[in-house]
Every structure is written in C-alpha cells, then in structure tokens.
Amino acid sequence: MNDGKYRQHIKAGMEVDIILKQDQRTGKTTRGIVKDLLTNSAFHPHGIKVRLSNGQVGRVAAIVRAEA
Q1: Are 46 and 59 in contact (CB under 8 A)?
Q2: Which of 16, 21, 59, 61 has the most other CB atoms within 10 Å of its CB?
Q3: Contact (CB, 8 A) for 56 and 18
Q4: Measured on CA atoms in the order 6, 47, 14, 17, is the torsion positive or negative?
Q5: What would the pLDDT profile of 20-54 be if each residue is shown by its tens digit?
Q6: Secondary-structure class of domain 7-65 per CATH
Q7: Could you count the other beta carbons within 10 Å of the beta carbon of residue 64?
Q8: Does the model's pTM come out above 0.85?
Q9: How deeply is 42 buried, as exposed, middle or buried, from its count of CB atoms within 10 A (0-12, 13-18, 19+)?
C-alpha cells in the first residue's frame, strides 16, 4: 500500500494530497508537488510531513502520481 506514512514512498517531484494543519479537523486535502520532506523518521502514523512547491506544509494523505 503506497500511502503517505512511509518516507521511502515519497520523493521530491511527486504529486500528493496533503492535509494542512488548519484542515486536520475536517480532513480537507490540498493537492501539490512535493518540494521537501520534513519528517526525518522512516514512518509516521499521521503521514510524512512535506513542503509543497507552493510553500504549503502538511502531512501526506495520499500519493496521487509518482514522478513524471
């Protein structure tokens, strides 16, 4: 299962859906391209924290598309 909880599944340039801090209660997702991985551990139960190319930071909810 290729979800956003394992750091090895996420690379810069991938298109992902993230949950921003202010959207954690609603679960609303934001789509974007990964610029940086911010979580250092190999696994995080709520999703790996990333910075998108537009500067937004959140935890990966789903991987939409691998690198183009």
Answers
A1: yes
A2: 16
A3: yes
A4: positive
A5: 999 999 999 999 999 999 999 999 999 999 999 99
A6: mainly beta
A7: 13
A8: yes
A9: exposed
